[in-house]
Amino acid sequence: METLRPVLGIGALLLLAWILSENRRDVRLRPVLGGLALQVALAVLLLFLPPVQQAMLAVNDAAEALNRATNAGTRFVFGYLAGPPLPFAEAQPGGAFILAFQALPLVLTISALATLLFHWGVLQAVMRGFAWLLRRTLGVGGALALGAAVHVFVGMVEAPLLVRPWLARMARGELFALMTCGMAGIAGTVMIIYGTVLGAVIPNALGNVISAAIISTPAAIAVAALMIPFDAGREDRAELVLPDPPHDSLDAILKGIAAGIPILVSILAVLLVTVALVTLANMVLGLLPAIDGAPVTLQRILALPFRPVVWLIGIPWAESGVAAQLMATKTVLNEFVAYLGLAGLPPDALSPQSRLILTYAMCGFANFGSVGIMVGGISAMVPERREEVVRLGLRSLVSGTIATCTSGALAGLLAG
Q1: Rounded distance, CA 318 to CA 157, Å?
Q2: Out of 121-125, 214-218, 258-262, least confident range
Q3: Which pLDDT value is given to residue 416?
């Protein structure tokens, strides 16, 4: 029964997506069944094929080297603020950790490296290969396939920007599927950060984060096709066109650094303001009578519906309260804060398998702040569809969460 529960959980999540569908009778089976089959196939490939596992471990080692190299740069610029050795005694363990100086500068290094790989054509080849796989298995159009593939590496606004010429003529369901991929994915600029944060509690942390981002993409299309059906037989072609491409490798590095600065500032600003606003809301909710000896908070409220969900995807009921709180934190704040919470839990709070399930289930941008960012970004690209994009925003949060939860269930099932 414990083995069957994640299978039933995936079925229940897909049933929920179908219940929330705009047109239950018009669901096309090919993108749904194809998406689920591809999700399972990629998960098996990434988690069990020895050469792929070795490649993931190599990527994890490379990420650790990149993090050490970035730390050398931040220590040179910021001194002890970037980490040990400290010129004073640490009053409490971990008290000297400063997020802005010791974790987030990695965004700049990754942005520069990603732009350089774009200039060399490495990432384009990977994206085109994944887009081809999506077209062949799910039957989706070229613009959606390319946009979904790009979402594995870039954010929820940058990916639509790269397929901007096709946004205006996308079907409603295709546009929703593209938005769902944004909510179910994370950007390459933060993958290594999350792998670094989780490195102490999850074996091959970065490999699992990358695997989660990859397998959640076909799942996102499958869930979106259930909620807003679309014709999966389109044969439109789309090519990746980079705005203002760099002239040479040095120009690529400089442009990557320049592009990473607003991303870094945005992450800092969103974290600061989101935590402040949620804290303010929790102060207001704290005026209500306490429940079970604890004040009412947004996280506690949202954790209530998440508790049966995390149980369904394979987390024991005794651990479901902690897991639901993390999922609620991820939705109310963001996955970064939730991953920090997961990394900071006592060793006996969650089993290793539960930590792995949550790593996959929380690996996505599906939170309230991201909805605002994505809706604002896509609306600016296609102002004639602004009202439609706004209406699809919150629905994409739900669909993106369902997609990543199915990935969590699948990871737990295969790892178990």
Answers
A1: 38
A2: 121-125
A3: 72
Give the CA count within 13 Å in the CB-facing half-sphere of 128.
11
User: Average pLDDT of 263-288?
Assistant: 84
Q: What's the confidence (pLDDT) of residue 111?
A: 79
Mean pLDDT of 211-238: 84
For 27, other C-beta atoms within 10 Å of its C-beta total 17
Confidence of residue 124 (pLDDT cuts 50, 70, 90): confident
Confidence at 142, pLDDT banded by 50, 70, 90: confident
Tell me the average pLDDT across 207-227: 94
Is residue 153 within 8 Å of residue 180, measured between CB atoms? no
Name the residue with tokens 């602004």: 386
- CB 314 within 8 Å of CB 407: no
